[in-house]
Design goal:
Elements (H helix, E strand, L loop, with lengths): L25 H5 L27 H20 L1 H8 E4 L3 E7 L2 E2 L6 E4 L5 E7 L3 E11 L5 E12 L2 H6 L4 H17 L4 H6 L1 H16 L4 E15 L27 H10 L33 H11 L2 H7 L1 E8 L5 E8 L5 E4 L8 E6 H9 L4 H6 L4 E4 L1 H5 L1 H9 L1
Parallel strand pairs: 9-12
Antiparallel strand pairs: 1-4, 2-3, 2-5, 6-7, 7-8, 9-10, 10-11, 12-13
Helix pairs in contact: 2-3, 5-7
Length: 411
């Protein structure tokens, strides 16, 4: 027992490179080979559900048996009294991790479990899904832009023992790991790729975090990115030019995407190119002027005039095409807030000032000048969204349907 020499714990192999989710093959993630070198991977091998401690000598093993046997006898002799202290009720969504004489035991529960006095230290672990929010942080993208990006993350504990013995503060460590993975992954993308590949980035970011937190007994179920305002537009020399609408699906950053974000980007970016196919276009995250506004028959100068124009074109056909209700929160130059609604769910539709009687499908927040410019075609919705002038709460795919209303208003 006392003649055993001290042995260093095995160290991690520094030559092995870890591959992040943005560059990893999905098939390789299904059979991961996580890094070793942590003490709980070897003494005992908790990650393989093997709680046999081979480092314990036979003298120590005998002493442990004697102490445990004496504690059992004392507990059963005074059972009517000790029963209030040694019996613990564990619900289905919790497990109890017990350290007996300092050595970890298999998790206990659910139901009634026995915890011995004096020699057992125990801790409850909740297995239910938890969620936390990563506050928006500044990310410098590959094209030189600065964007505020946060994330909403849901995770759960799949191995209660590893979550206790491998990390001291699980919540703080997970938050820090998620924020580091967020900034590291998005810094390798351009502004355009971040906006058009949102769902793919969320999936790969979850793979990144899972790879780092798997040895902690934790699994990330869902990652949802939240975009703030664009603090700095990408540099012109590094911003990738847009292609014509005919070749847009094969453009860098859009190939292989079939989700609503791709449709939103393709729809918004190709909207003005259909009328001017020879006009050179580039991704600009500021106000973009379009010559289409010159051909508009009606040029409303205020939100009220724009509202009157919208009410004139409402029809059952438009309701059948959109089938959604929208709430507009408009701010004026003097700081006042005005609310307008657009209900295209029944009849011939309705539009006016005030609030909807039901929960809106999408809420859009912007200034009155930007709203008029967007409906006149002088400000593209995609540019307004990426520059932070247009804030959307709700389904992006549903918000994209407003483009049909803009087309009808121009006619």
């Amino acid at each position: 027992m006392f003649g055993r020499s001290y042995q260093l714990l095995p160290q991690r192999d520094s030559s092995s490179q870890k591959t992040h989710g943005l560059f990893v093959n999905s098939h390789s993630f299904s059979q991961p080979s996580y890094h070793k070198g942590l003490s709980f991977d070897y003494i005992p091998n908790i990650s393989a559900n093997d709680f046999t401690d081979a480092s314990q000598g036979w003298v120590s093993w005998i002493c442990n048996l004697i102490v445990i046997f004496l504690v059992y006898i004392c507990t059963f002799i005074a059972f009517p009294v000790t029963g209030w202290f040694v019996l613990k009720t564990v619900p289905n969504y919790q497990r109890v991790v017990v350290f007996r004489l300092g050595r970890v035991c298999p998790p206990k529960g659910p139901g009634v479990v026995l915890v011995l006095p004096l020699i057992d230290q125990w801790q409850k672990v909740d297995l239910r899904t938890r969620a936390f929010n990563t506050p928006p942080c500044q990310v410098i993208t590959r094209d030189g832009g600065v964007l505020l990006v946060g994330a909403d993350i849901q995770f759960r504990i799949w191995n209660p023992v590893m979550s206790v013995v491998s990390v001291q503060d699980l919540n703080a460590s997970t938050r820090m790991t998620a924020q580091n993975a967020l900034t590291h992954s998005l810094s390798k993308k351009t502004i355009r790729e971040i906006q058009t590949e949102r769902l793919k980035l969320e999936e790969y970011l979850g793979m990144d975090i899972n790879e780092m937190t798997h040895p902690w007994g934790l699994e990330v179920d869902r990652v949802e990115l939240t975009f703030g305002s664009l603090l700095k537009a990408p540099e012109e020399g590094q911003a990738a030019p847009l292609t014509t609408p005919a070749s847009l699906p094969s453009a860098p950053g859009l190939g292989g995407l079939t989700d609503s974000i791709q449709q939103l980007a393709m729809h918004f970016l190709s909207h003005s190119g259909s009328s001017h196919p020879k006009q050179e276009d580039s991704l600009t995250l500021m106000n973009e002027l379009s010559s289409e506004a010159e051909v508009a028959v009606v040029t409303p100068g205020s939100v009220e005039e724009l509202l009157s124009g919208v009410q004139m074109i409402l029809s059952e056909t438009l309701v059948q095409q959109i089938r959604a209700c929208f709430q507009f929160e408009i701010s004026t130059a003097d700081g006042q807030q005005h609310q307008y609604y657009l209900d295209l769910t029944q009849g011939s539709g309705a539009a006016g000032s005030g609030f909807l009687c039901r929960e809106p499908d999408v809420t859009l927040s912007m200034s009155d000048c930007d709203l008029v410019d967007m409906f006149q075609g002088r400000l593209r919705p995609f540019a307004a969204y990426t520059s932070g002038k247009l804030k959307v709460q709700g389904d992006i795919k549903t918000a994209m349907k407003l483009e049909e209303l803009i087309k009808q208003l121009k006619k």
